[in-house]
Amino acid sequence: MLVDGEGVRVLQPAAQADPALVRIEAISYNGSGNVVLDGRGAAGLFVRVYLDNRALLTTLVAEDGTWRASLPAIAPGVYTLRADQIDDAGRVTSRFETPFKREAPETVAAAGVDGAPVSVTVQPGNSLWRIARRSYGSGLLYVQIFEANRAQIRDPDLIYPGQVFTLPLIEE
Questions:
Q1: Do 47 and 97 contact (CB within 8 A), yes or no?
Q2: In this predicted structure, what is the pLDDT of residue 106?
Q3: Predicted local distance difference test score (pLDDT) of residue 143
Q4: Whole-number Å distance between alpha carbons of 114 and 22
Q5: Any residues with CB less than 8 A from the CB of 59 and at least 6 apart, and which?
Q6: Domain extents for the chain?
Q7: Separation between Cα atoms, residue 51 and residue 60, nearest integer Å
Q8: pLDDT value of position 110
Q9: Looking at the domain 118-166, which fold is it?
Q10: In Å, how far are 6, 17, 85 from 55, measured between CA atoms?
Q11: In which element (H, E) is residue 147 found?
Q12: Which terminus of the chain is more exposed, N or C, with fewer CB under 10 A?
């Protein structure tokens, strides 16, 4: 992953995912605090992004199978974010849906690092170890995520897709 002022980008090619299926790989904030989505899909097709079943934008999947979109201004809150892959005839060929928490701009600014995630929505296959390794560079820091989200996590070995966890700022 590359974290910069434009948000978070997944650089490593997807190893096991079907390239014909659309997916959202990263939800981040750019230096201006706007929400940026990065994903993959079938090259040359379009991705239409919805928030709570309301169409927001349509973008083209690049030849390398990646796509990126900046969402228009939306109020803080928890939403259902959906990406539909659309063929030339306008038919949906693939769909990806996930819960999404839009952080308040002041929360993003308080994080202090452009593009650094301040929350994460658990996806199938995630574990606290994997989230910590991806977010902080070390899986051992899963304990900080667990402590910051104790109200939601009874057992650190049992987290569930759709849960939204706060990622605490780690002092180095």
A1: no
A2: 76
A3: 93
A4: 27
A5: 46, 47, 49, 67, 68, 69
A6: 2-104, 118-166
A7: 18
A8: 64
A9: Membrane-bound Lytic Murein Transglycosylase D; Chain A (3.10.350)
A10: 23, 25, 13
A11: helix 142-148
A12: C
Residue 116 has a pLDDT of 57
Which stretches within 10-113 are classed as H helix?
105-111
- Distance, in Å, from the CA atom of 122 to the CA atom of 128, rounded to the nearest integer, reads 9
Beta-carbon contacts of residue 150 (< 8 Å; ≥ 6 apart) = none
Tokens representing 104? 């308040």
Decide: pTM greater than 0.70: no
**Token representation of residue 81:** 């974010």
**Weakly modelled stretches of the chain, pLDDT under 50:** 1-3, 115
Token pair 């690049």: residue: 62
> CA 138, CA 132: separation in Å to the nearest integer?
6
Fold of 2-104: Immunoglobulin-like (2.60.40)
Q: Which residues pair with 49 in a beta bridge?
A: 57, 83
Enter the tokens of residue 47.
Answer: 């991705």
DSSP assignment, residue 12? S
Retrieve residue 148's tokens.
Answer: 């910051």
Q: How far apart are CA 65 and CA 60, in angstroms?
A: 10
